[in-house]
Specification:
- With 165 residues, the chain is an all-beta fold.
- It has one domain (8-164).
- The chain is built from no helices and 15 strands.
- It has strands at residues 8-12, 16-18, 25-29, 35-37, 44-46, 53-55, 62-64, 71-74, 86-88, 97-100, 109-110, 123-127, 132-136, 145-148, 162-164.
- The protein has a nine-stranded mixed beta sheet, with no helix packed on it.
- A hairpin with a 4-residue loop joins β12 and β13.
- This is Hemolysin-type calcium-binding repeat-containing protein.
Length: 165
Amino acid sequence: MCGQGANALSVSSMEAVNGGEGADAITVAGSIATRLSGNDGNDIVVSGSGSDQIGGGSGADQLTGGAGVDPFIDGGVTEASTMAGGAITDFSATTDLSIFTGMLTGAFSFLGVAGLTATGSSQARLDATPKILLIDTGGDGNADIKITLTGADITGLDTNAFLWR
């Protein structure tokens, strides 16, 4: 929907919004379920009150789900790498879902606050004080993805908050 470069876009009653290249600011108003993607660049994506699918694309993106059950989709290590990082401002462990596509190695384990170790399987841990989620996609004990959970409700965060496909 947006072109190249930095774009600011506010929409309502849209089913899909893609940011394109550049640092985009996308805001959705209303309760229609929308598929949102920032694509390339350091994007700010704010969804409405519907149950929206939200992905930032590559770059250090800031994602806000709003009301509703919102799946946050990560399609690759470059989307929220430990170098760029990413942030979800309102993740709820009881209603929202983190979806990781095409990155599962072995079986997934959520370790809580325990450290990552070389297990040969994908795993995640939570650094609870700053609310940083560290994801090891390859099972080597090193974080490949870093997501800051700013303002998130992490009470009850467990394996059920993650979907690997």
